[in-house]
Amino acid sequence: MLKSQLEEKISSIFKFESETSQKIVDTLIGYMSSAISNNDRIEIRGFGSFFKKKYKSYTGRNPKTGDQVNVPEKVLPLFRPSKELLNKLNDSK
């Protein structure tokens, strides 16, 4: 689902104008982004949790040339699905 499709869905369900649903989605995404960057964990019951994880630097290899490359320390956002979501995905097969 695209962001615009989510906005349309919210607009049709709650009978909002499209500008209002755009502001709702933008506010939600903005709040989640700032929360994760401030080292807060976001947990949505029945869906999953979002958090950030710090990875140490390491020496890797360029797969094309085989040269050693220093990979710097980095922080990545991660998503862990809830048990309910995993069960729903696996039961739909």
* Range of strand content: 25-35%
What is the domain total for the residues? 2
Report the mean per-residue pLDDT as an integer. Answer: 93
Straight-line N-to-C gap: 20 Å
Fold topology:
Blueprint: H1 3-14, H2 18-37, E1 42-44, E2 48-55, E3 58-61, E4 68-71, E5 74-81, H3 83-91
Antiparallel strand pairs: 1-2, 2-5, 3-4
Helix pairs in contact: 1-2
Features:
93 residues; alpha+beta; 2 domains; 3-stranded antiparallel β-sheet; two-stranded antiparallel ribbon; 3 helices; 44% helix
Explain the overall architecture.
The protein has a 3-stranded antiparallel beta sheet with strand order 1-2-5. Strands 3-4 form a two-stranded antiparallel ribbon. It has helices at residues 3-14, 18-37, 83-91; strands at residues 42-44, 48-55, 58-61, 68-71, 74-81. The longest helix has 20 residues, at 18-37. It folds into 2 domains: 1-40; 54-93, no CATH class. The model has no long low-confidence stretch (mean pLDDT 93). The two termini are 20 Å apart. By secondary structure, the chain is an alpha+beta fold.
Compose a concise summary of this entry.
The chain has 93 residues and is α+β, with helices and mostly antiparallel strands.
